[in-house]
Amino acid sequence: MSCQSIDAKFQLPQRYQGQIQSFWDEYIQLTLKYKPMNLGLGFTDGPVPQYITDALAAAAKSPNSIVNQYTRGSGHPRLIQALSTLYSQLVDRKIDPINEMLITIGAYEALYATIQGHVDEGDEVIIIEPFFECYEPMVKICGGVPRFIPLRLNNTTTSSNSEINSSDYVLDDGELEGLFNEKTKMIILNTPNNPLGKVFSRIELTKIAELCQKYNVLCVSDEVYEWMIFDDNKHIRICTLPGMWERTITIGSAGKTFSVTGWKTGWAYGPANLIINLKMVHQNCVYNCPTPIQEAIAIIFEGEIKRLDSPACYFNVLAAELKKKRDFMAEFLNENGMKPIIPQGGFFMTANWSALENKADLSTELDTQQDFRFTKWMIKNVGVLAMPPSAFFSDTNKSMMEHFVRYCFFKTDENLQTAANILKEWTGKVMTIRQNCLPAPPNDSI
Ligand SMILES: Cc1ncc(COP(=O)(O)O)c(C=O)c1O
Question: What are the distances in angstroms from CA 220 to CA 114, 126, 151, 209, 235?
Answer without folding.
Answer: 8, 10, 17, 11, 16
